[in-house]
Amino acid sequence: MSDIKVSNSGALGADPSARFFVREHHPENGTLLGFWIYLMSDCLIFACLFATYAVLGRNYAGGPSGAELFDLPLVALNTAFLLLSSITYGFAMLESQRKRLRAALVWLGITGLFGAAFLSLEMYEFFHLIHEGAGPQRSGFLTAFFALVGTHGLHVTFGIVWLVTLMFQLGRHGLTVENQRRMMCLSMFWHFLDVIWIGVFTFVYLMGVLP
């Protein structure tokens, strides 16, 4: 939205009563455009990590393979948690468009719980692998695995922190234009993490159990 400021001229000899108008213009949808650019840069990061895993994914160095380590039922449950969180965030967006603040906050809270459940299972998997001697230093395969899956988990952690902060902002200021724009940006980020995880689940876990 454009803001107009009125200021007195301070030039030497100028009429003290003279005024001029300065129009400050914020481009419409400029925030969303900038956030799309950020997501594209994040795509490059994950593309590099996927490429690294593609190169090192079969370098076991005499250690365990994915078929020996991965617990597919547990990973499938974790995938369900993240996909459900994306659905509940969609419900929160619908409620925000209907100006139902309380319902939007409830759905955002459910989304955060699903995200926390996803992170809890992922941390359990990591601790279990390290306890079994399959830490990131064991082989190139495990180094690439921990780097890719861990980077995604770190993004989910940041997303949950962002979500909690947004809930406080909504509770304090309501469904303002600014807060709805923030909800839209977080929605893009959250769905982006879902898409990346589908790639991880398919490329790392499902293909990793193949002989």
What are the key terms here?
211 residues; mainly alpha; Four Helix Bundle (Hemerythrin (Met), subunit A); two-stranded antiparallel ribbon; 6 helices; elongated; disordered N terminus; cytochrome-c oxidase activity; Cyt_c_oxidase_su3-like_sf; transmembrane; Cyt_c_ubiqinol_oxidase_su3; Cytochrome bo(3) ubiquinol oxidase subunit 3
Please describe what this structure looks like:
This protein is mostly helical and 211 residues long. It has a domain at 82-209: Four Helix Bundle (Hemerythrin (Met), subunit A), CATH 1.20.120.80. It is built from 6 helices and 2 strands. It has helices at 30-56, 66-69, 72-97, 101-131, 140-173, 177-208, and strands spanning 3-8, 19-24. Strands 1-2 form a two-stranded antiparallel sheet. Helix 3 (72-97) packs antiparallel against helix 6, helix 4 (101-131) packs antiparallel against helix 5 and helix 5 runs antiparallel to helix 6 (177-208). The protein is elongated and about 60 Å long. The chain starts with a strand and ends with a helix. The relative contact order is 0.15. Mean pLDDT is 89; it is low at 1-14.
- Mind telling me which CATH architecture of the domain at 82-209 this is? Up-down Bundle
DSSP, total strands = 2
**H and E string:** EEHHHHHH
Number of helices: 6
List the helices and strands and how they pair.
Layout: E1 3-8, E2 19-24, H1 30-56, H2 66-69, H3 72-97, H4 101-131, H5 140-173, H6 177-208
Antiparallel strand pairs: 1-2
Can you describe this structure in just a few lines?
This protein is 73% helix and 6% strand. By secondary structure, the chain is mostly helical.
